[in-house]
């Protein structure tokens, strides 16, 4: 149950994207619900969406500057949190989808950048699995190019159940390289949107990869977080392995009540204030989606925390 005052806060008309997603995902309202349709219409006309789309190149990509001041974004480069794949993800978070021709054009262009096996660059799951979640949210799950990347994710196997990119695979001569928790977390989020694969051996192995480390801790030291951001609430989601990435995905797939996640849930509880709002620990300043002030109660984080808890308790 969401406290009424928190629900009223999330449903404020001034933030139509959070209102829309609260109605649709947290409350499960029908797509024809008048309040949901009204919020959807307000999203399309919002300044938050305009801020991103106004920066889009006419050919369907976003340019930003990397740490060396070079323009990046025409391809699949990371470089900045304001390049193409992050901007498409931000628009998806705001509730936009392929029905907008500008987004359809940008998504189509980006999908054409993938390789024959569905990869984008050096088999980085923190890139291709991140993109999968975005394209699912944009309504492109049936696109053959998206399905090609899903196949790549399924067919990529490692002994410990996680994922690792070509940059690090085989870099040590005397011992095996452990999987990357960040790339593995992006794959976990992608699988959470594919219920038909939850019982597949590959997904089961990935879930076990996280459960045996309590979700957010190192496998060789249960008192240390697996990444520096593992105990942080982060929005918009990036290539990192934040607290909500893992808890939301595992809860969606039915593992939220696992006793092995008890400490991770306690970490999330520590983010909640007396009013029941959850704070934002970190947000990328370069992102064109302005999530709010770091360290302050945040609607996006509260929405996702409540969604993870609702799915845990379902």
Q: Secondary-structure element sequence?
A: HHHHEEHHHHHHHHH
Write down the overall mean pLDDT. Answer: 96
Computed over alpha carbons, the radius of gyration is: 19 Å
The computed structural class is mainly alpha
* Number of helical segments with 4 or more residues: 13
**How many structurally independent domains?**
2
Oligomerization category of the chains in this entry: single chain
Strand tally: 2
Share of helical residues: 40-55%
Q: How would a textbook summarize the main sheet?
A: 2 strands, antiparallel
What is the 3D shape? globular
N-to-C span: 11 Å
* Spatial strand sequence of the major β-sheet: 1-2
Strand content: under 5%
Low-pLDDT segments, ≥5 res: none
Task: Describe the protein in words.
With about 325 residues, the chain is mostly helical. It has two domains: about 5-115 and about 200-314, no CATH class; about 115-195, no CATH class. It contains 13 helices and two strands, in the order H-H-H-H-E-E-H-H-H-H-H-H-H-H-H. The chain has helices at about 5-10, 15-25, 35-45, 45-55, 85-95, 100-110, 125-135, 145-155, 180-190, 200-210, 245-250, 260-270, 300-314; strands at about 65, 70. Strands 1-2 form a two-stranded antiparallel sheet. The mean pLDDT is about 95.
């Amino acid at each position: 149950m969401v406290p009424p005052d928190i629900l009223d806060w999330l449903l404020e008309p001034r933030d139509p994207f959070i209102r829309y997603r609260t109605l649709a995902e947290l409350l499960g309202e029908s797509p024809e619900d008048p309040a949901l349709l009204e919020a959807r219409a307000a999203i399309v006309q919002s300044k938050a969406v305009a801020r991103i789309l106004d920066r889009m190149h006419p050919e369907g990509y976003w340019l930003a500057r990397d740490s060396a001041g070079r323009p990046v974004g025409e391809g699949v480069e990371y470089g900045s949190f304001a390049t193409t794949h992050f901007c498409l993800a931000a628009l998806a978070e705001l509730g936009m989808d392929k029905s907008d021709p500008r987004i359809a054009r940008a998504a189509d262009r980006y999908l054409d950048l993938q390789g024959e096996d569905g990869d984008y660059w050096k088999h980085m799951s923190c890139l291709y699995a991140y993109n999968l979640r975005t394209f699912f949210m944009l309504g492109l799950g049936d696109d053959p190019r998206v399905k090609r990347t899903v196949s790549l994710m399924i067919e990529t196997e490692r002994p410990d159940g996680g994922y690792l990119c070509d940059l690090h695979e085989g870099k040590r001569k005397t011992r095996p390289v452990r999987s990357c928790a960040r790339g593995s977390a992006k794959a976990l989020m992608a699988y959470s949107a594919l219920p038909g694969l939850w019982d597949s051996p590959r997904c089961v192995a990935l879930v076990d990869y996280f459960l045996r480390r309590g979700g957010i801790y190192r496998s060789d030291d249960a008192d240390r977080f697996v990444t520096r951001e593992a105990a942080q609430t982060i929005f918009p989601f990036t290539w990192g392995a934040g607290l909500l990435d893992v808890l939301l995905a595992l809860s969606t797939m039915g593992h939220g009540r696992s006793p092995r996640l008890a400490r991770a849930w306690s970490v999330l509880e520590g983010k909640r204030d007396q009013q029941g709002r959850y704070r934002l620990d970190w947000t990328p300043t370069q992102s064109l989606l302005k999530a709010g002030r770091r360290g302050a109660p945040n609607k996006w984080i509260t929405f996702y925390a409540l969604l993870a808890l609702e799915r845990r308790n379902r």
